[in-house]
Design a protein that fits this description.
Blueprint lengths: L8 H11 L3 H21 L5 H17 L7 H18 L13 H5 L2 H17 L2 H10 L4 H15 L3 H25 L1
Helix pairs in contact: 1-2, 1-3, 2-3, 2-4, 3-4, 6-9, 7-9
Length: about 190
């Protein structure tokens, strides 16, 4: 079995040196680069953008540590991020279910728990502004081609690109998930 590479102090030092010769500025540039990568993954609807940004930075640090010369570090990082993102699309965690198909309560056990979750979801949906509620319900409706066509039509109706709609829907879904979790804790 292949041993997974981990970031070492030496590899981190080389990465920081590639960012800037001044250690203070290198640290600032590192944080700025990490923020850019987190945004990159968020815009694409990644499940764990911070983890994927860190994974990307680790890979770049590894390549620099192995002696690869990188002249455009930001561009190189974006290329690595793109590959990390494509890998996540192949993984099992990338398979998202529609809101209608989500049944975590059934797996945890009990009809009562499932009803509580559904009740909380309904309550959280009602608490959203009508426009947001419509976006989330329309976005996660239908299957396959019908879903793609519905999303295109929704983006056109809202006058935004499909990528912006995807980001908006993901933020709304995250907010709904947090709302449902808070609601379930009250029960």
């Amino acid at each position: 079995m292949k041993k997974e590479w981990t970031l070492t102090g030496d590899a981190l030092a080389k990465l920081l040196a590639a960012l800037d010769v001044d250690p203070g500025r290198a640290g600032e540039k590192y944080e700025a680069l990490r923020c850019l990568l987190v945004k990159f993954f968020r815009w694409r609807g990644a499940s764990f953008p911070e983890e994927q940004a860190d994974k990307t930075i680790d890979r770049v640090a590894r390549r620099i540590d192995e002696g690869e010369e990188v002249h455009d570090l930001t561009g190189y990082c974006y290329g690595a991020a793109r590959l990390v993102f494509l890998e996540t699309l192949k993984g099992p965690e990338s398979r998202r279910e529609s809101l209608d198909g989500v049944e975590p309560a059934a797996a945890a056990g009990g009809r009562e728990e499932e009803e509580s979750r559904q009740s909380c979801l309904d309550e959280c949906l009602r608490s959203l502004p009508a426009e947001h509620r419509e976006i989330i319900l329309q976005y996660y409706r239908d299957e396959r081609r019908a879903k793609i066509d519905r999303r295109k039509a929704l983006a056109e109706r809202l006058g935004i690109p499909s990528s912006a709609l995807r980001s908006r829907a993901q933020r709304l879904r995250d907010r709904l998930g947090e709302c449902v979790d808070r609601c379930l804790k009250k029960i």
